[in-house]
Amino acid sequence: MDQKIIVALDAMGGDLAPMETVKGAVDAVKEMNVLVKLVGREEDVKRELAKYTYPKEKIEVVHAEEVISTDEVPTMAIRKKKNSSMVVGMQLVKNGEADAFVSAGSTGALLTGSLLIVGRLPGVERPVLGTCLPTKNGFTFLVDSGANVDCKAKYLEQFGKMGSVYVENVFGKKNPSVALVNIGAEKEKGDSLTKEAYELLEVSDLNFVGNIEPRNIPFGEADVIVCDGFVGNTILKFAEGLSKTLVDIIKSEITKGAYKIAAAMLVKPFRNVKKYFDADEVGGAPFIGLKSLVVKAHGSSNAKAFKNAIRQCVLFKEADIVGKIQDKL
Amino acid sequence: MDQKIIVALDAMGGDLAPMETVKGAVDAVKEMNVLVKLVGREEDVKRELAKYTYPKEKIEVVHAEEVISTDEVPTMAIRKKKNSSMVVGMQLVKNGEADAFVSAGSTGALLTGSLLIVGRLPGVERPVLGTCLPTKNGFTFLVDSGANVDCKAKYLEQFGKMGSVYVENVFGKKNPSVALVNIGAEKEKGDSLTKEAYELLEVSDLNFVGNIEPRNIPFGEADVIVCDGFVGNTILKFAEGLSKTLVDIIKSEITKGAYKIAAAMLVKPFRNVKKYFDADEVGGAPFIGLKSLVVKAHGSSNAKAFKNAIRQCVLFKEADIVGKIQDKL
User: Fold this and answer.
1) How close are the terminal C-alpha atoms of chain A, in Å?
2) Inter-chain touch B259–A239, beta carbons under 8 Å
3) Confidence class for position A273, pLDDT limits 50, 70, 90
4) What is the C-alpha to C-alpha distance for residues A50 and B69, in angstroms, rounded to an integer?
5) Closest CA to B239 of B273, B277, B213
6) E strands along A100-245, which residues?
7) What is the pairing mode between strands A34-40 and A224-226?
8) Chain B, 21-80: which have a CB under 8 Å from a chain A CB?
9) Do strands B34-40 and B59-63 pair parallel, antiparallel, or not at all (unpaired)?
10) Is A235 within 8 Å of chain B by CB?
11) Does the keyword Acyltransferase apply (chains A, B) (predicted)?
């Protein structure tokens, strides 16, 4: 029997909502066997939907009056704004009316709400935020990319396991290699957390390949890289800032006077360079270890990003990642 | 009275030793009021020295038979190789026969030896490794860039103070701004370490400007940025790897077929881009908080880098940084 997967999408989340959220949903239902529940101000969402032709039975609108903004204190916002698109969306998941939830809204509110409303999977110490970090030859899956600070070694071991299951089943990489982010290659290097985590990962059933030094992360030497959320978020955000700075410096140098012509010839190659770092291809960062999947889409997500976030949800459900994670832990 | 400053230089340390170490010493004594003691195999060092004309009274050779390699276990190497260029050089500092020591040899051995032989300054919890990280408009001084893991908040406060004194007196930046590396801009963000360190830095006499998010580090928003050595080393090494990867990707894209001509026209601007990231301009990472200065030069240092490392030592001594740090703590 062909049971349809239901994904709730926060229609109001992100800089380009509701235009791009709605378009992403429309594109998704045309490609995938999925029912998308667009959660947000009915009037706004329906106005956007009216622009498109699509199989009507595959999109529903669920009204939510309020919106949580990115500058609100997460816990307060989740508690007070019961009628926000984010809270209503997660309630759908909690009540079994959706299999997964996607939002490009406030990261803090989404993570807090996920824990409070969707809830942790039994046996999971800390759900983990995974982000695809672009590398020379594809990407590496960074867990934790910012959900958990002050971690214990046991958490890191679980991050590795959950990351491995996700990458294998959602991104289709067989027996993914898992490495521990550390400031030295040898086993005895690092701080007390990484030393202890190494011991646990080494004896686990993962395809553990040892420490990865931060210098080697961009070379794509491992499919999954494990660290605490402070280090992971530092890597992720520093990568954004540094890439932007480097490209700015290069652009400013090559558009000076005599080089303008050469620079103009290079518009296309530079566009290809940008593709290496195209976050929209993946569509968001999954928050893994909850009773269902929640995907945090980037604040600047476009329709393609939302469509791909929905695809992650579909693959997650189809592959029964929840069951596989429980088996693994 | 014009008292000459004496700098001991590990003539055997680094990939390009002793050619570049000796040339760096020769260039330094021509420019600065300094006596350089070249420590290493006398025969090798003298053979290099014979290539140059320089004021003979400003360079001395101190024989040391052994060399510590980068693959040796630091503590063992320092303990066993009493006649190595590194140990002999640090002994000169300990005995008052040199004011500072520069080496491009094994980082681990140098840090270990610094603590064991040169020794901590009273009142300093942990000496800190400071590294100039290139930014859009110059550089930011990263403390700690890798000497201390498992830090306490009190250490981070001292890193800020020592970094501030160093940047003000050696790099000539008046009342330098100091920021705490953290994964959120607000005071209450971060892990337990950064939250506690924030409290200490806030009430210190530093020009503390709050948290700096990793995304903003390359924009050069603060003169000194403070973090524990695990995070600092991660930032430093990841920056190296990512810059190299980005430049490789850009190069491979723009040298494809039709773009070759345009790329050829851009050799000079790309050389200018490289200048932004020229570590040789600074000459090495000072290990601050010891009884004297020890500078870790990069393994691939050339003569210019060694000369500039020697300059750091001269400025350090002239400005009495040891006294200023003791006042500050």
Assistant:
1) 30
2) no
3) low
4) 70
5) B277
6) 100-103, 128-135, 138-143, 177-181, 207-212, 224-226
7) unpaired
8) none
9) parallel
10) yes
11) yes
Cβ contacts of residue B30 below 8 Å, gap of 6+?
Answer: B54, B55
In contact, B13 and B81? CB cutoff 8 Å: no
Write the residue in B190, B268, B273 that is nearest to A249 by C-beta.
Answer: B273
- Using a CB-CB cut-off of 8 Å, the residues of chain B touching A225 are none
CATH of domain A1-124+289-329: 3.40.718.10
Instruction: In chain B, list all ranges with CATH 3.40.718.10.
Output: 1-124+289-329, 128-279
Closest CA to A166 of A284, A277, A286: A286
Average pLDDT over residues B8-12: 98
Q: Is B267 on the interface with A (CB under 8 A)?
A: no
Contact A260/B at CB under 8 A: no
Residue in B15, B266, B305 with CA at minimum distance from that of residue A266: B266
- Residues in chain A with CB shorter than 8 Å from the CB of B242 are 217-218, 239, 242-243
Chain A touched by B300 (CB under 8 Å):
no
pLDDT, tens digit, 9 for 90 and up, residues A63-95? 999 999 988 999 999 999 999 999 999 999 999
> Residue B44: is it exposed, middle or buried by C-beta count within 10 angstroms (0-12/13-18/19+)?
middle
Q: Strand A293-296's sheet: what is its strand order?
A: A59-63, A34-40, A5-10, A100-103, A293-296, A285-288, A128-135, A138-143, A224-226, A177-181, A207-212
pLDDT tens for B291-307 read: 999 999 999 899 999 99
Rounded-to-5 percentages of helix, strand, coil across chain A: 50, 20, 35
Tell me the CATH number of domain A129-278, given options 3.20.20.70, 3.30.2350.10, 3.40.718.10, 3.30.1330.10. Answer: 3.40.718.10
pLDDT > 70 in chain A, percent: 92
Does residue A180 contact residue A210 with C-beta atoms inside 8 Å? yes
Residue to mutate among B144, B156, B183, with most A CBs inside 10 A, is B183
DSSP B320: T
CA dihedral A95, A96, A98, A104 (to 10 degrees): 40
Q: How many CB atoms lie within 10 A of CB B300?
A: 13
CA–CA gap between residue A174 and residue A26 (Å, rounded): 31
- State the Cα angle at A108 between A105 and A112, rounded to 5°: 110
Is residue A150 reached through a cis peptide bond, with omega within 30 degrees of 0 on the bond before it?
A: no
Interface of B with A in 137-156 (CB under 8 A): 146, 149-150
CB contact under 8 A, B218 and A237: no
**A190/B contact by beta carbon, under 8 A:** yes
Domain with CATH 3.40.718.10 in chain A: 1-124+289-329, 129-278
Test A246 with B243 for CB contact under 8 angstroms: yes
pLDDT of residue B244: 84
Report residue B282's pLDDT band, with 50, 70 and 90 as the boundaries: confident
Contact A237 B265 (CB under 8 A): no
Q: Which two tokens stand for residue B261?
A: 């001509």
Report ipTM (2 d.p.): 0.90
User: In CATH, which superfamily holds the domain spanning B128-279?
Assistant: Isopropylmalate Dehydrogenase (3.40.718.10)
Taking phi over 0 as left and psi of -120 to 50 as alpha, with beta for the rest, B37 belongs to beta
DSSP 8-state symbol, A255: T
Question: Could you tell me which residues come within 8 angstroms of residue B158 by beta carbon, excluding any fewer than 6 positions away?
Answer: B124, B125, B126, B128, B289, B329
Close Cβ partners of B185 (under 8 Å, ≥ 6 residues apart):
B210, B211, B213
- Which helix (H) or strand (E) covers residue B86, if one does? helix B85-94
